[in-house]
Amino acid sequence: MSPALGGVAAALEAGRAAGIAPALAAAVLRDGALVHASWHGELPAPAPRPLRPDDAFDVASLTKVMVTTTLAAQLVDEGRLALDAPAARVLPGFEAAGKGEVTVRQLLAHASGLPRWRPYFERAVKDPEAGGAFRPAGERPPALAAAFARGKALVAEAVLAEPLEVPPGARAEYGDPAFIALGLALERLGGAPLGAQAEARIFRPLGLGSTFYLDALDPPAAARRAAGIAFAPTGWCPHRRETIQGTVNDANAYAMGGVAGHAGLFSTVLEVAAFGQAWLEAVHGRPSPVPAAAAAEFTRRDAAPGSERALGWDTPSRGTSSLGARLGRGRRGAIGHLGFTGTSLWIDLDAAVVCALLTNHVHPSGTNDKARMRGLRQVFHDAVAEAVGVG
After folding, report:
1. Tens digits of per-residue pLDDT, 79-131?
2. For the residues 294-318, what does the mean pLDDT come to?
3. Which of 68, 142, 325, 363 could form a disulfide with 261 if both were Cys (CB 3.0 to 4.6 A apart)?
4. Is the separation of the CB atoms in 25 and 40 below 8 Å?
5. What does the pLDDT read at residue 361?
6. Strand 57-58 to strand 23-30: parallel, antiparallel, or no bridges (unpaired)?
7. What's the pLDDT band for 1 if we cut at 50, 70, 90?
């Protein structure tokens, strides 16, 4: 029987009843101890059943911190990656279209001048080979590894050619292209696919056996990894003409074969919370796969004008934050991140509280109602603060 905080469970059950998400899971750690874990709603296929602790969620942009940011922090600590060096030094070709002075730090801080989003996947849809992966399920070729390899090449080509919207460091604008570029750079620097590096350097050391990418460039390995796992669906995709379940929701990540620096990761709520705890341990100088010195640097707000971002991480906004009104108000504040599918991870660095919330808010429509999801996150975090006596 998992521990549960009554007010927290009630808030999440109310969110489910209101139709904010058909499946929700939450975990809260205080001083490293699990004080809350609950699962609400159900999975619809192959037959409706209650949500279970081992069910996998597409964590969407939590990938940015759980993989890309953490690998970057490790490589910075090892002296293999320089935050203030041009990113083109580790990603040749990135200097195109005026990006030669963009630094690794600026990519991590969303201050590179790159756009918020681009539909790079459309290049794959139109391509004779890569487009096979976007045909209706019954019309797709039996072997798609080559299609996804071509799709990844097309997305990489587009990111390298992407011009800046403003000069580097002139603004903070959250976006995916910077982290797609970072993922490509880390693959080149690490000499291995992003998923393999994450498994060896992050997931295995932390014991995260249910956190993974499904790499469509290696179909046998992906099939083995997905065997026996039930996935929360993430809604209708007009580009693939199917309801997504067991493949990445993000279209650009899907075109790349499901493994990217900005999206693609699947996990469970207990493992997302455990990952958050690893960063909290590092911030407090305790042993962790996250280097303490890098953690101090990566959790500091960036200097870009108007920035509320650290390196990879978000911090509570000056206005209305999804963290609510009570957590993250201490001297050190909080770090966190959100995911499009309805996921979030927030870490109160003073109160030593880790809050993981995974939902499939975008199911069945495939769209995200930001206002409703922000409201649920605020209610959840305020209920946590009330239950553990913070604020």
Report:
1. 999 999 999 999 999 999 999 999 999 999 999 999 999 999 999 999 999 99
2. 94
3. 68
4. yes
5. 98
6. unpaired
7. low
> Tell me, which fold does domain 64-207 have in CATH?
Beta-lactamase (3.40.710)
Q: Alpha helix (H) ranges present in the chain? A: 6-17, 63, 70-77, 104-108, 121-126, 145-161, 177-190, 194-198, 204-206, 219-226, 251-255, 269-283, 292-298, 370-388
Share of the chain above pLDDT 70, in %: 100
Where do we find the tokens 């192959």? 46
Residue 357's φ and ψ, nearest 5 degrees, are: -135, 120
Q: Say if residue 47's pLDDT is above 90.
A: no
Euclidean distance between CA atoms 86 and 17, whole angstroms: 49
Nearest alpha carbon to residue 246 among 263, 262, 227? 227
Mean pLDDT score across all residues of the chain: 96
Q: Which regions of the chain carry the CATH code 3.40.710.10?
A: 6-62+267-388, 64-207
* 89, burial (CB in 10 Å: exposed 0-12, middle 13-18, buried 19+): middle
Separation in Å, CA 247 to CA 92, 313, 368: 30, 25, 18
Predicted local distance difference test score (pLDDT) of residue 317:
86
Q: Provide the sign of the torsion angle of the four alpha carbons 225, 227, 229, 231, taken in this order.
A: positive
Count of CB atoms situated within 10 Å of the CB of 180:
28
Over residues 157-204, the pLDDT tens digits come to 999 999 999 999 999 999 999 999 999 999 999 999 999 999 999 999
CATH class of this structure's domain 6-62+267-388: alpha beta
Is residue 177 a contact partner of residue 87, using CB atoms and an 8 Å limit? no
d(CA 214, CA 226): 7
The rounded distance, in Å, linking the Cα atoms of 150 and 191 is: 19
Question: Token pair of 257, please?
Answer: 């074969």
